[in-house]
Amino acid sequence: MRIVGVDEAGRGSFLGPLVVGAFAISADRIEELRAAGARDSKALSPAARAACYARLRALGTARSIALDAGAVDRAVARHRLNDLEAAAFGRLLGGLRPDEARVDACDANPARFAERVRRAGGLRGAVVARHHADRDDPVVGAASIVAKVRRDRAIARLAGHLGVPVGSGYPSDRVTVEFVRGWLAAHPEPPPWLRRSWATMGRVKPPGPARPLDRYG
Question: Half-sphere exposure of residue 148, counting CA atoms within 13 Å on the CB side?
Answer without folding.
Answer: 25
